[in-house]
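Lab notebook: predicted structure, single chain.

Context: the supervisor wants predicted structures on file for every construct in the current expression panel, including those that have not yet been purified. This is the next one on the list. No modifications to the sequence; it matches the entry in the shared construct table.
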Amino acid sequence: MISYPFIDKDRPVRDVPASVKVLLVLALIMQLVWHNMQPPVAVRAEDLPPPLSAHAYVLSSLGEPIAASKFLNLWLQAFDNQPGISISFHQLDYVRLTQWLDTILELDPRGHYPMLVAARVYGSVQNPEKQRIMMDYIFQKFNENPNKYWRWLAHVIITAKHELKDLDLALKYADALAEKATAKHVPRWAKDMRIIVLEDMGQLQAAKILVGALIDSKVITDPYELKFLTQKIIVLEEKLSKTRQSVEK
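Prediction complete. Output recorded below exactly as produced.
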């Protein structure tokens, strides 16, 4: 074993020259001052990037568009949780967000998940402007395929009516739902939503006429639906009578 007699591992600190001690203390102080002068490290939320083409995602998934759509669903849903920071949905660029939803729908045209999150997640933020973006997006998709997306427009009608308090918008959507969703699997309650909206708007006579027309059309054969409409006529007549009495007074 080689030894180095000129190195003394047990040399006491008091043997260190005073100049060296002063330099060490000054170096420590300068390091602390330098660190304090540095600006704090800011964690910034990344902006939602634009999506690639659906074809690019198909290629990257080795020709599996459904798998690509599911992966993008998970990625988009987790985008608000970024390293070191958590951002709220209302901070997202909603126009860019609809582009992602479109891409996911293009990868999986039979899927409903993008419409689900548009209606119940992103459309539920406490930001009327961004809620309207999601509602318009759902309305656009509904117009492309009313019999497929009718349930999401029904959800939007409720949002417009109860959260935004925009009965005119709710009626616009309810009219479209009643007129365009014509498939047999679309339930009558969805088409009858415009009756409820008209009633809430105070357009009792219009609602009554609409209900009467539905009954007289003989299109509705379900006994429960007919019972609902008949009872609705009675309720509307009572409200109209009270309205006339209040006006006469």
